[in-house]
Amino acid sequence: MKTKVLIVDDSALIRSLMTEIINSQPDMQVVAAAPDPLIARELIKQHNPDVLTLDVEMPKMDGLEFLEKLMRLRPMPVVMVSSLTEKGSEVTMRALELGAIDFVTKPKMSIADGMREYTDMITDKIRIAAKARIQPRPVAGARPAGSHGLPSLGNRLISSEKLIIVGASTGGTEAIKAFLVDMPSDCPGILITQHMPAGFTRSFANRLDGLCRISVKEAEGGERILPGHAYIAPGDAHLLLARSGANYMTQLDDGPPVNRHRPSVDVLFDSAALHAGQNAIGVILTGMGKDGAAGMLRMREAGAYNFSQDEDSCVVFGMPKEAIARGGVHEVLPLNELPARVLHYLAQDTSRALRV
């Protein structure tokens, strides 16, 4: 049975192009296209689509307002179609918070050669969205789980010698937020690869920085990794862990995609296995595919201790499932238990912080 898609976009040209792209696939079809959310509301009732593609900026009701109402009244998989602008990236981050599964940038009609790549990207995201688990939205005004914050480690050796290495994809922006928001200011340095296009990771990092007790930034390369800081891979480069004498450093690389991704979780995990070994804690979160699974196994073989998000709390249980199957994971936990368990593991045996 084909995946039924409803397109919501105020541009007739975009609606036509998206319809052509989606209908070219054997496993999906456009059942309707709406120029605004008010018409979309009636078409949803009429066609009961499996996936909605939703423009951000539209007349009568903007995409965010419509998404918020939709996820409250009739939760369903939504892929946002966003403009690649500073405003567009901010709005897209908010859309993911409201429950959108993923997003794509608007197609550039002037680049014919790029249409095959764009077609692959948007149809892959629709396929993933159709299988995604819709997570319940927090009650309005509710604070995140564990909102009082986790207690400080109180051990400078752990904070400076250990590292937390995180990988995620679909659903990862909200999972990473949940993982970071209550981390204490003296937690070990955290390196993060989240599959995300260039132009969006800085907004993502800035948004997290305003929510978290730790400092969060887009990695620039060549930075000393400090306790109480998280470094997010930029959307157009691999993030690696490097060493300079006794210091851990960030390193960026613009090499080819790995597992179809740049940044790639495997690239980050491999560098952690090489340079941190048993001083690394690996964490793999929600995401489609297998990126990170091989690297997490190499981390374990190098002495790292690794955690995975469990199936019930994942939007897509792809990357964690593959990492577990390959034997790279020590513990599997719900997302809301992961931050405290990681810190508890670090604090269990302070002598581990002395290993190099």
- CATH class bucket of the largest domain: Alpha Beta
Largest sheet: 7 strands, parallel
Q: What is the C-alpha radius of gyration, as a whole number of Å? A: 20 Å
Number of domains: 2
| Overall strand count | 14
Q: Give the spatial strand order of the biggest sheet.
A: 8-9-7-6-12-13-14
- CATH architecture field of the largest domain: 3-Layer(aba) Sandwich
CATH topology call of the largest domain: Rossmann fold
Mean pLDDT: 91
Give helix % range.
Answer: 25-40%
Counting helices, strands and paired strands, the structural category is: alpha/beta
Low-confidence stretches: 140-146
What features would you describe in this structure?
The protein is an alpha/beta fold. The chain folds into 2 domains: 3-131, Rossmann fold; 156-354, 3-Layer(aba) Sandwich (Rossmann fold). 36% of the residues lie in helices and 21% in strands. The protein is built from 12 helices and 14 strands. It has helices at 12-23, 37-47, 63-73, 86-98, 115-131, 156-161, 172-180, 201-211, 265-275, 293-301, 319-325, 338-348; strands at residues 3-8, 28-34, 51-55, 78-82, 102-105, 163-168, 189-194, 215-218, 229-232, 238-244, 247-253, 280-284, 305-309, 331-333. Helix 10 (293-301) links the parallel strand 12 (280-284) and strand 13. The longest helix has 17 residues, at 115-131. It is elongated, with a radius of gyration of 20 Å. It starts with a strand and ends in an 8-residue tail after the last helix. The model is unreliable at 140-146 (pLDDT under 50).
